[in-house]
Amino acid sequence: MAYFGTEEISTLPGELDLVTFGQRLRHLRRSRGMTLSDLGERVGRAPSQLSLLENGKREPKLSLLTSLAKALEVSVEELLSRQPPSRRAQLEIAVEEAQRDPVYQTLNLPHLKVGKRVPNDVLEHIVGLYDELRRRSVKPTATPEEARRANADLRRQMRERDNYFPAIEKAAQETLDAVGYRGGALSQGLILAMVSHYGFTLRYVQDLPRSVRSLTDTRNRRLYLKRESLGMHTPRTILLQTLGHFVLGHAQPRDFADFLRQRVEANYFAAAVLIPEAAAVPFLTDAKQARDLSVEDLRDVYAVSYEMAAHRFTNLATRHLDLVCHFIRNDETGIIYKAYQNDGLVFPTDDTGAIEGQRMCRYWSGRQVFASPDRYSIYYQYTDKPNGTHWCVAHVDPSRERNFAITLGVPYKESRWFRGRETTHRTKSQCPGGECCVRPPSDLASRWEGNVWPSARAHSHVLAALPAGPFPGVDETDVYTFLERHEMR
Ligand SMILES: [Zn+2]
């Protein structure tokens, strides 16, 4: 103990068997009922780094060994013992862990105390059955209602934290530091350096399954990716999102809510790496002082999509710029795909509190931009709403194959910090309450109600639950206006 405990010893005994060490480390951690994150927190390391150790992919530094031993309440010698944990010991822990799993608990079995007399093969059977139970219970999909509920819950958590997640910012900063990032847009070389820093290799393939953005072979630590962009996601965002799951120590999602949370965190990680807090905050602070804040500058400096720049702005705005704001992504028919606010904006919601899939007010900038003479230029607007006026900037990104409007908005008094505040566009909205635009104007309705059979366009997005109505998903006002326009032709 004293040998390893002394400060000046900085190297490990040469013959440390990394595989055995990893097994022992995992065994000790699990026997103490700790997750990778629990242990990571105690020793001040990312769960992903500990995972590398447990998989025998990385050699531990002495300082880390000391803190691991302390956290696990063993001596360093014991941690470094050449003896792999026995199968019996592994089985006992596996059965204990299984019984703590809610899936196992739904079986309502009395707790099994694994005494010395329970034979190994019985334990093997229990563990084998549990693994299969676990596999069958994994639900990567959810009913639309579960999905909407999970989404609403997640959005509430984001709002409570002003959409700022310090732990993920820290993980992103550590990743940037590890590859020597110096500022500006992130180069491809640095991204590749990050991949190898976490022990992965990258393979570009053409035959990636269509249902995935990327695939990771965790055994061989290989990341498979296609070269082309997939919808909103460029290869480097997909790559960083994928890496994010490992850096943040994500385990296989327990349910849809867990899946969703992980996806949001991985996306956050990718954005925090591409638009680093340490560099972006001074940049935005200067822009605010110059009363020239703009999403497009953030996009240009960090070479990201307009959507990512706008969304990243929401992460940093409240914490660092003292601004509340909102963010919306909607399609041309006004259906909301993604939304966030901590500035009091009232979104349309369904019974479960979900916003995704709802149709937003036709007088909001995210819909008005589609009607502006040049829909691809940056569009500014003031909107008078029941609880106040917002200033918003909306943009339809021309580089995307499908037209989505991205809106970033702030309360009226904060518009003074932004480029585009002198706009003369102004609309009034009563949504989501009152007679604004949810129902068609009564004169139109009285002429056309009952005389039309629209065939709705199918929405494939799982979260785009269709707004209720006689023809779900169909905007009656649009239909009636169309009829009105064409009747006389
Ligand atoms: Zn409206």
Protein traits:
single chain; Arc Repressor Mutant, subunit A; 4 domains; three-stranded mixed beta sheet; 20 helices; 10% strand; globular; binds zinc ion; Putative transcriptional regulator
Structure description:
The chain is an alpha+beta fold and 489 residues long. Helix content is 45%, strand content 10%. The chain has helices spanning 2-5, 18-31, 36-43, 47-54, 62-72, 76-80, 87-100, 102-105, 120-137, 144-160, 166-178, 188-197, 235-247, 256-274, 277-289, 295-302, 306-321, 365-371, 442-448, 476-487; strands at 201-204, 214-217, 222-225, 326-331, 336-341, 379-385, 388-396, 404-411, 426-428. The strands form two sheets. The protein has a six-stranded mixed beta sheet, with helices on both faces. Strands 1-3-2 form a three-stranded mixed beta sheet, covered by helices on one side. Helix 3 packs across helix 4. Residues 1-11 and 461-468 have low confidence and may be disordered. The structure holds zinc ion. Zinc ion is lined by residues 361-363, 429, 431, 436-437.
What is this entry, summarized?
With 489 residues, the chain is an alpha+beta fold. The chain contains 20 helices and 9 strands.
Topology readout:
Layout: H1 2-5, H2 18-31, H3 36-43, H4 47-54, H5 62-72, H6 76-80, H7 87-100, H8 102-105, H9 120-137, H10 144-160, H11 166-178, H12 188-197, E1 201-204, E2 214-217, E3 222-225, H13 235-247, H14 256-274, H15 277-289, H16 295-302, H17 306-321, E4 326-331, E5 336-341, H18 365-371, E6 379-385, E7 388-396, E8 404-411, E9 426-428, H19 442-448, H20 476-487
Parallel strand pairs: 1-3, 6-9
Antiparallel strand pairs: 2-3, 4-5, 4-8, 6-7, 7-8
The protein binds zinc ion (ZN).
Zinc ion binds at residues 361-363, 429, 431, 436-437.
GO molecular function, one term: DNA binding
Organism: Actinorugispora endophytica
Pfam families: HTH_31 (PF13560), Peptidase_M78 (PF06114)
